[in-house]
Amino acid sequence: MKRHHVHLSATIETATSVGARRGTPVILQVDAKAMVAEDFLFYRSENGVWLVDESLPGSLFRTA
Length: 64
Fold this sequence. Notes:
By secondary structure, the chain is α+β, with helices and mostly antiparallel strands. The protein contains 2 helices and 5 strands.
């Protein structure tokens, strides 16, 4: 893949809409509060998607 950032969305609806442009989306929930505590830098794209530069450790994933 040619992606340079991890793409995050504030809502499941946004994640589904953006992800569906490339096929069937897979939605994972992450602990954004823990990401802030771990000093991840967030950027917001024009389409409302949040971006981070680095891969995410498994400890940040949550079950819905």
